Amino acid sequence: MSKLKGPDGRIPDRLPDGRPAVAWERRWTEGTLPLWLVATAGGIAVIFVLGIFVYGSYQGVGAGG
């Protein structure tokens, strides 16, 4: 696997013909933080926050008089 490197050492986003330099499949599974891990953690965080709001909205029901 050859990695094309720019003048500053980074891989360019696009090849000269316009195709992505790194396929989305590799972006999804490789890297410092794979995208599947970021997406999973983000989804869990959203569900957790929504759960807090739903839980809080039912705390006042039936309480007091």
UniProtKB/TrEMBL annotation:
Main subcellular location: membrane
Gene3D superfamilies: 6.10.250.2070
Gene: psbJ
Record's keyword annotation contains DNA damage: no
Functional description taken from the UniProt entry: One of the components of the core complex of photosystem II (PSII). PSII is a light-driven water:plastoquinone oxidoreductase that uses light energy to abstract electrons from H(2)O, generating O(2) and a proton gradient subsequently used for ATP formation. It consists of a core antenna complex that captures photons, and an electron transfer chain that converts photonic excitation into a charge separation.
Keywords: Membrane, Photosynthesis, Photosystem II, Reaction center, Thylakoid, Transmembrane, Transmembrane helix
The protein, known as: Photosystem II reaction center protein J
Membrane-spanning residues: 35-58
Self-association and partners: PSII is composed of 1 copy each of membrane proteins PsbA, PsbB, PsbC, PsbD, PsbE, PsbF, PsbH, PsbI, PsbJ, PsbK, PsbL, PsbM, PsbT, PsbX, PsbY, PsbZ, Psb30/Ycf12, peripheral proteins PsbO, CyanoQ (PsbQ), PsbU, PsbV and a large number of cofactors. It forms dimeric complexes.
Compartments reported by the entry: Cellular thylakoid membrane
Gene Ontology biological-process entries: photosynthesis
Entry GO terms, CC: photosystem II reaction center; plasma membrane-derived thylakoid membrane
Family: Belongs to the PsbJ family.
